[in-house]
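Page 37, continued from 36.
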């Protein structure tokens, strides 16, 4: 049944509202990463503005260039791992539109829901972003300790986080925050399994950028199915 929910979400990808959310999320994510890197470069330039003198070497004028190029490599490396959680978190600001598009097409008889305020959406997004980034950075320790199990750790961790976030988003629209939390606890195993299904495509460049859209759509179907049990 989870696969059926996922296939329904995939079939709706051409929806205009899906595409609008996708491009907004990607654009804001790239802008954020560029802004962070610009801030790093500014900090390096400020720190190395005055030449550093080393005994026996003299003035070192190339330290700023070295740090700048080094920071570029570090940012590229980190972006490989952070692009997905950052894009997921930013795109989650607009996922209410995806859920509404799914309900308009597949559940047209449902009553309208109260739109989530921008402030509430921003708060949830910041919290989700913090948890995602912190968890994925912390996971590097586990990757180093258990390199043979790194891929399974990645899927299990991100599957849990994505499942928790997307189900909460879908259910909260109609159940409220407390009701969504209670329903999530009741079906935690199913939600985690569905989250792992979302986590698998994270390994594929470019495809991983549509996971927030597919996740919101899939979990909207999943919520409506589980809420009937």
């Amino acid at each position: 049944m989870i696969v059926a929910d996922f296939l329904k979400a995939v079939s709706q990808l051409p929806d205009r509202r899906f595409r609008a959310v996708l491009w907004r999320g990607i654009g804001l994510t790239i802008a954020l990463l560029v802004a962070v890197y610009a801030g790093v470069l500014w900090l390096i330039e400020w720190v190395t503005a005055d030449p550093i003198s080393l005994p026996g070497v003299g003035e070192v004028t190339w330290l700023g260039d070295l740090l700048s190029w080094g920071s570029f490599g570090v940012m590229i490396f980190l972006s490989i791992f952070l692009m997905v959680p950052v894009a997921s978190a930013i795109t989650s600001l607009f996922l209410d539109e995806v859920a509404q598009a799914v309900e308009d097409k597949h559940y047209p008889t449902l009553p309208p829901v109260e739109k989530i305020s921008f402030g509430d959406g921003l708060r949830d997004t910041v919290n989700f972003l913090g948890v995602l980034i912190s968890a994925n950075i912390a996971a590097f320790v586990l990757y180093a300790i258990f390199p043979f199990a790194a891929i399974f750790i990645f899927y299990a961790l991100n599957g849990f986080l994505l499942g928790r976030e997307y189900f909460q988003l879908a259910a909260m629209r109609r159940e409220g925050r407390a009701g969504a939390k209670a329903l999530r606890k009741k079906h935690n195993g199913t939600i985690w399994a569905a989250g792992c299904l979302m986590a698998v495509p994270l390994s594929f460049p470019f495809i991983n950028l549509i996971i927030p859209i597919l996740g919101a759509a899939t979990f909207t179907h999943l919520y409506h199915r589980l809420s009937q049990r």
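The helical segments are 2-11, 16-47, 63-91, 95-106, 118-145, 150-186, 188-199, 211-226. Flag for discussion at group meeting. The CA atoms of residues 102 and 108 lie 9 Å apart.
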